[in-house]
Amino acid sequence: MQKPQRGSTEFTLRHQLDALPRTDLITVGAVTPEKLGELAAMARREIPGVRASERELAEFLRHDPNSIFVLCRGGKLLGGIAFLYLNCAGLDALLLEEFNLNDPPRKYLARPDEPAAAIYVWALVAQGRGAIGLGNVAQVLRGPRFHAADYYAQPSSPQGRALLGALGFEPVPSFQPDLWRYQRPWNRLPAVIAPSIQSVGNFAQRSVADAGH
To answer: Which InterPro entries does the UniProt record give (predicted)?
Structure first.
């Protein structure tokens, strides 16, 4: 995963991913064949370690056409984001570091008609104001197929790590190095409400008074 590029400082405010607002300034949609090569070149240029070719991405898209989104403004490509939608076996394998994330086995990917058990942020690149389009992507991934799935990611730079923290991701214990998770708000356990100091004091006063009778 990579950081948004310069010019997107308004995006670095601390927000929860699912609370990001959608915008009409950026057009977000599934990648088209016309944009695939341009996006692959941008990802190789901007994200450390990415070597995916247009042919490899096209093969990946044949499994799930809605796994790569492009961020555009006025027809100009500003970036994109690619996801691995994991099934239950895939989530277990991710946590145990049992498969190569650069070449994920199809057996670990949810079918297009199957609810995802986890959403892995495979790659993210955005230039200028493109990053504010992530609110539009988040809206799509609140749909029924993805509603129960938490996000996972591995930052590729200190800036990417800072971005994950700003979006509500936290490091998660796993065999996978530097794995971060964003837990969907509706998947979180209710917080235990601690009694206020005033309530504790009132209780203690009543207990002392009761003990005196």
So the answer is: Acyl_CoA_acyltransferase
